[in-house]
Design goal:
Helices cover 29% and strands 24% of the residues. By secondary structure, the protein is α+β, with helices and mostly antiparallel strands. It has two domains: 291 residues, no CATH class; 49 residues, no CATH class. The strands form five sheets. The protein has a five-stranded antiparallel β-sheet with strand order 4-3-16-17-18. The longest helix has 27 residues. It is globular. 41% of the residues are buried.
Length: 377
């Protein structure tokens, strides 16, 4: 695992915009898509990341069943009125992409270590699936990349397309950065390539007509792809309606993803699989030694605290934490300064599908940069 400094392509901004990545530079002028460097991996290292991805998916399947069997949803801060729907959808397996991104710490010297699983509303999707492959083809056409994400997503959309008789609505908020818009637009394109009719809609434009959800033109919404967290959705004004109408409206991803995307799953995994090489010790109570305190539901690195040597080494602000915290043993990221990589290992329909890399300081937040990769050797 080797970080290499490169000269960015002339006109790289126009090149990535042509692929749909309109949010490539932060408001202060720093690149989010950063091709001034890349990471080179050996095939053995890629094999280790791929194997860890498959292994962890199996552990999450067992943890999900244990959560339901042991009645642990209350520990996850999930409202009581959503518990039955989560169990029902887990057992019924409605149409879904069943995709997500495992965030790993990895230095090429030891096994990948799980930080968390972003599987409800994962982002950095277009850049991982399409943009870095296009960069690789332009810069290193003779080398490979660990990346089957686009093909696997396209195949899965084609697989579930017959489940929808009318159309699928694609919903998200109007985020200032446009990151959600980029992700949803990419997913819409994949769905349309699979033969589906799609309709874009903002979350606040979804209505309830007394019988089911409807869009601004009064069309029933029988299928909704939502880049909007379930923990927000169930607490909205019509959250109870969403829970009660699961048979009429298929949500992608389904509500049972609330179990896996919640960091309360981390202590459970450690309890079920202690000393697993791909897990870090985790608990609902403070750990001895160096650790990271994480809110159950935080996003973009919000409300994180790193404790090392009995003192706070780094922390972030945010609006999370009232739901509770978990404590995870500290894994010091390789690199230094703002060049500390986190591996985002993707999975689609239970199969490893590639990876993306984000760089930041000791806490990976919303100013992290996406760095492409190659396989060499």
């Amino acid at each position: 695992m080797d970080r290499r400094t490169l000269r960015p392509r002339d006109g790289w901004q126009a090149k990535v915009e042509a692929l749909g990545l309109i949010w490539h530079t932060t408001p202060d002028g720093r690149p989010y898509w950063d091709e001034s460097a890349c990471y080179a991996f050996s095939r053995a290292e890629i094999g280790e990341i791929e194997s860890a991805t498959a292994e962890l998916y199996g552990l999450f399947l067992k943890a999900g069943q244990a959560i339901l069997d042991r009645g642990l949803l209350g520990r996850f801060g999930i409202p009581d009125y959503a518990h039955k729907a989560i169990g029902d959808m887990w057992n019924e397996e409605p149409p879904a992409l069943n995709y997500g991104r495992f965030d790993f710490g990895y230095d090429g010297k030891g096994p990948p270590k799980l930080f968390e699983f972003n599987c409800d509303t994962p982002t950095s999707l277009l850049e991982a699936a399409v943009v870095q492959w296009d960069w690789k083809e332009a810069m290193f056409p003779g080398l490979d990349q660990y990346n089957s994400l686009h093909d696997k997503l396209a195949a899965k959309w084609k697989d579930i397309a017959p489940s929808f008789e009318d159309c699928v609505h694609f919903a998200h908020i109007a985020d200032d950065a446009g990151e959600d818009t980029v992700t949803v637009s990419y997913m819409r394109d994949l769905a349309e390539q699979a033969g589906l009719k799609t309709v874009p809609i903002l979350m606040h434009d979804i209505g309830w007509d007394g019988q089911g959800f409807a869009d601004l033109e009064g069309r029933p919404m029988s299928g909704i792809y939502h880049l909007y967290p379930w923990e927000w959705l169930v607490n909205e004004e019509f959250g109870r309606n969403a829970v009660a109408s699961m048979e009429e409206t298929a949500w992608i991803e389904p509500i049972w993803k609330m179990m896996w995307s919640n960091k309360a799953v981390l202590p459970l995994l450690w309890e079920m699989f202690p000393d697993h090489p791909n897990l870090l010790p985790a608990s609902h109570d403070p750990l001895g030694g160096d650790y990271v305190r994480k809110p159950l539901l935080a996003r973009e690195g919000a409300n994180i605290e790193i404790r090392r040597g009995g003192a706070t080494e780094a922390s972030t602000d945010g609006d999370y934490g009232t739901e509770g915290f978990v404590y995870q043993a500290l894994y010091p990221l390789p690199g230094e300064g703002e060049n500390r990589p986190v591996i985002g290992a993707w999975i689609v329909d239970g199969e490893p599908a590639g990876m993306g890399i984000r760089e930041d300081g000791p806490i990976t937040g919303n100013t992290a940069r996406f760095i492409p990769h190659i396989i060499q050797g």
